[in-house]
């Protein structure tokens, strides 16, 4: 790639991989042989995030030009361009929208909007009190009546329905929330924060806990597939909290050491036991925290690691670096 890779996304069938550069261009790879099949211009001033729809029929990007774009992969061209409402699009997130077809949530400045698959504005929510830092859909559980969308801003985590302009609820907490991580079962939600803490909520009751003492602000959060363990960054070591039972209060976390620089990314396998980490030192670590506090595999990039993202089938790990390097790491079946 041309320069710093800021976002990596897999197609739902794990056959295609997309990587976006901070300067704008987006490259699509065919995973089976690593070939470059499509190069998209991305966004003027830079691309911030990319993602495939849950059904794989639409590919979206967000940028520093204040737009969201849909792309036609067959033609390698732009199919729709939408105004996100502010100069910088901070985040996008695809959701299933309860059987009515996938919808895309976008966060730009104080604006939170929903978009249809054909680029039509489905809903614009009331302005947030401050800039929205992240948006994430709750994982759609079997039997769930509707999806919920969480948005983070200074002082609050708000939950929304696709069918209503009014928030379902707001969880208030004085601080700057940076990133959101839902547990796979939707029972918990965690945020990484500017003040070097991790905040944790039981969604049903609204009860909350705080984990503090991190050396830096926390942007790295990842849940294991069974919603028990929450891996957190915020420094040069990985801290893993056991959230079973009454939660992580008054418990000792698992601490994994090995990086020689600040962590930039963490990712548990969607199905499996492995945790991937990437840091400023260029190290990519593969860990099995339940068995060992030492990495079971180590890979090195020439520059800092910006992204580690597992394929939906958990068989491959995409790794990207600040120097534009994109690498694929295959793992054995079962993640061992």
Q: Work out the oligomeric state of the chains in this entry.
A: single chain
Given helix and strand content, the structural type is mainly beta
Order of helices and strands: EEEEEEEEEEEEEEEEEEEEEEEEEEEEE
Mean of the pLDDT scores?
94
Span between N and C termini?
Answer: 31 Å
Low-confidence stretches: none
Overall helicity:
under 10%
Number of strands: 29
For the largest beta sheet, what order do the strands appear in spatially? 13-14-15-16-17-18
What does the main sheet amount to? 6 strands, antiparallel
Strand content: over 45%
> How many whole angstroms does the radius of gyration measure?
19 Å
| Number of DSSP helical runs | 0
Shape, per Cα inertia axes: globular
Tell me briefly what this model is.
It contains no helices and 29 strands.
Task: Kindly describe this structure.
The protein has strands at 5-10, 16-21, 26-30, 35-40, 47-52, 59-63, 67-72, 77-83, 89-95, 103-108, 111-115, 121-124, 134-137, 149-160, 169-182, 188-193, 198-202, 208-211, 221-223, 229-232, 238-242, 254-256, 263-268, 275-279, 283-287, 297-300, 305-310, 316-321, 326-330. It is mainly β and 336 residues long. The strands form 7 sheets. Strands 13-14-15-16-17-18 form a 6-stranded antiparallel sheet, with no helix packed on it. It has a 4-stranded antiparallel sheet with strand order 1-2-3-4, with no helix packed on it. It has a 4-stranded antiparallel sheet with strand order 5-6-7-8, with no helix packed on it. It is globular. The two termini are 31 Å apart.
């Amino acid at each position: 790639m041309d320069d710093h890779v800021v976002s990596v996304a897999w197609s739902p069938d794990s056959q295609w991989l997309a990587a976006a550069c901070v300067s704008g261009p987006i490259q699509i790879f065919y995973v089976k042989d690593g070939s470059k099949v499509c190069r998209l211009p991305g966004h003027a001033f830079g691309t911030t995030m990319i993602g495939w729809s849950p059904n794989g029929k639409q590919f979206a990007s967000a940028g520093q030009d204040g737009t969201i774009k849909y792309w036609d992969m067959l033609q390698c061209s732009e199919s729709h361009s939408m105004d996100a409402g502010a100069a910088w699009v901070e985040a996008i997130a695809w959701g299933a929208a309860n059987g009515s077809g996938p919808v895309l949530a976008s966060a730009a400045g104080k604006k939170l909007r929903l978009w249809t698959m054909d680029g039509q504005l489905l809903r614009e929510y009331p302005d947030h009190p401050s800039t929205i830092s992240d948006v994430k859909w709750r994982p759609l559980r079997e039997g769930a009546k509707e999806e919920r969308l969480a948005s983070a801003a200074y002082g609050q985590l708000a939950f929304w329905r696709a069918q209503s302009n009014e928030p379902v609820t707001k969880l208030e907490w004085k601080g700057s929330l940076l990133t959101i991580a839902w547990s796979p079962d939707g029972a918990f939600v965690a945020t990484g924060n500017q003040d070097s803490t991790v905040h944790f909520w039981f969604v049903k009751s609204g009860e909350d806990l705080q984990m503090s003492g991190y050396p830096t602000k926390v942007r790295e959060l990842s849940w294991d597939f069974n919603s028990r363990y929450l891996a957190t960054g915020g420094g040069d070591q990985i801290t893993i909290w056991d959230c079973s039972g009454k939660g992580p209060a008054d418990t000792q976390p698992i601490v994994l050491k090995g990086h020689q620089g600040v962590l930039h990314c963490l990712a548990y396998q969607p199905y499996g036991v492995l945790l991937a980490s990437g840091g400023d030192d260029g190290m990519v670590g593969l860990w099995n925290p339940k068995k060992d506090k030492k990495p079971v595999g180590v890979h090195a990039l020439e520059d800092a690691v910006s992204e580690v993202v597992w394929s939906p089938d958990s068989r491959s790990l995409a790794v990207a670096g600040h120097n534009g390097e994109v690498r694929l790491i295959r793992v054995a079946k079962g993640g061992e």
